[in-house]
Design goal:
Elements (H helix, E strand, L loop, with lengths): L2 E2 L6 H12 L11 H10 L6 H14 L5 E5 L7 H14 L5 E5 L2 H4 L1 H12 L6 H28 L8 H14 L4 H16 L11 E6 L1 H5 L7 H7 L3 E3 L4 H10 L7 H7 L11 H13 L4 E7 L3 H17 L3 E6 L5 H24 L2
Parallel strand pairs: 1-2, 2-3, 4-5, 4-6, 6-7
Helix pairs in contact: 1-7, 2-3, 7-8, 7-9, 8-9, 13-14, 14-15
This protein binds iron/sulfur cluster.
Length: 365
């Protein structure tokens, strides 16, 4: 068994550490790239959303490196994500690939027994004892939290750094060094080391950078290739960004949702505008926009793929929030045809608007 998995931001680091610790053979697909997207777009149904296409590209690039088993998380809908694994299995079968799929659905949807059966089918490739397996799983959770924290710190501090680009290069260096490690323990050391380094980056508290919340469809905001590396671009402009939806948030949300203890602040903030879950993370998007306006952000950018049903609903709600809270929100819709030049122009125009608003407030001009 040689397992692979689709990319989703920094999750590849935690999954790599997990498989290293368990001694399971795996293939990390090349970081999502143009070629993966072209492969995915070639074989996927034309009208399916962008994440599906990039994931197909990830799989096929891994299969070419010997992967024979695919690990993905699942959902029972109600958006297209609920159909992803079934469609992807059929599509890869039609292409002549004989693969095993391990789909990690929520335990509430498939039952605890089935959930553990699927977990044990992954762990069966490991010769570690149960205690060791649990210890490694704990490391995986620790790693996903650590890398999310490093990223969060870098993306927020970059607006205050004295030497432009220091946080970004530390973040990239951290990912590279973490990927070069051979065990979860080693990766944890690297991540802690970089968290410390970021804490020592010289900053000026007198700076007043623009602060932008990144909201929208979970895959598109987490996987940088799919949003044309928007957070890196904003770092280059010296803009501080924050994003609530991260892989560690997802894990926490999945654990707490059966007890209805998940994302309480988001649910409360969204109550006036969207009091129900309608699929995807539309409710989170609406709640985050409200919270960002309260937390003193200068604006928010919503990103989602063409045809994303839940985010089309939240997009129609966001203008009400923008009007009620006097809070600018830019929406960017992406697909395989998105041109970078037009995309950058829209971002720059939005930053310009935010800058002027901020100066008007600060200097009353
Ligand atoms: S949330 Fe949107 S982009 Fe993601 S799977 Fe559902 S419809 Fe597609």
């Amino acid at each position: 068994m040689k397992i692979t998995f689709p990319h989703l931001g920094n999750t590849f680091l935690a999954v790599k550490a997990l498989f290293d610790g368990l001694g399971i053979d795996y293939v990390v697909p090349p970081l999502s790239n143009r070629e993966a997207l072209e492969i995915g777009a070639k074989y996927s149904p034309e009208e399916i959303c962008l994440p599906f296409k990039i994931m197909i590209g990830n799989y096929i690039q891994s299969i070419r490196e010997g992967a024979d088993t695919i690990l993905i998380v699942g959902s029972c809908g109600p958006c297209r994500f609920g159909e992803y694994c079934e469609l992807q299995m059929n599509l890869l079968k039609k292409l002549g690939y004989n693969l095993k799929f391990i789909v990690l659905d929520y335990p509430k949807d498939i039952g605890l027994k089935e959930f553990f059966r699927r977990i044990s089918s992954i762990a069966s490739g490991s010769d570690k004892n149960n205690f060791e397996k649990l210890r490694v799983a704990g490391f995986g959770l620790k790693i996903i939290n650590l890398i999310d924290n490093v990223e969060k710190k870098a993306k927020f501090l970059c607006g205050y750094e004295l030497k432009r680009g220091q946080c970004k290069s530390l973040l990239n260096e951290c990912r590279k060094r973490a990927f070069e490690t051979d065990s979860p323990e080693e990766m944890i050391c690297v991540l802690k080391n970089y968290a410390g380094k970021l804490g020592k980056v010289p900053v000026s508290k007198n700076k007043k950078p623009l602060k932008i919340a990144i909201i929208g469809e979970i895959y598109t905001i987490i996987e940088p290739f799919s949003n044309l590396f928007i957070e890196e671009k904003l770092m280059n402009y010296g803009v501080s960004t924050a994003r609530c939806l991260t892989p560690s948030w997802w894990v926490k949300d999945a654990i707490l949702s059966p007890f209805k203890l998940n994302s309480i602040s988001i649910r409360m903030a969204s109550r006036k505008y969207l009091p129900f879950y309608i699929g995807g993370h539309a409710r989170e998007c609406v709640g985050e926009a409200v919270l960002a306006s309260k937390k003193g952000f200068d604006g928010a950018i919503q990103i989602f793929p063409v045809g994303c049903m839940p985010e089309i609903v939240s997009k129609s709600i966001l203008p009400n929030i923008a009007r009620d809270k006097k809070f600018p929100i830019l929406t960017l819709v992406v697909d395989e045809m998105t041109g970078e030049a037009g995309y950058i122009t829209r971002i720059e125009a939005f930053l310009d608007l935010l800058e002027r608003r901020k100066n008007n407030v600060l200097y009353g001009s």
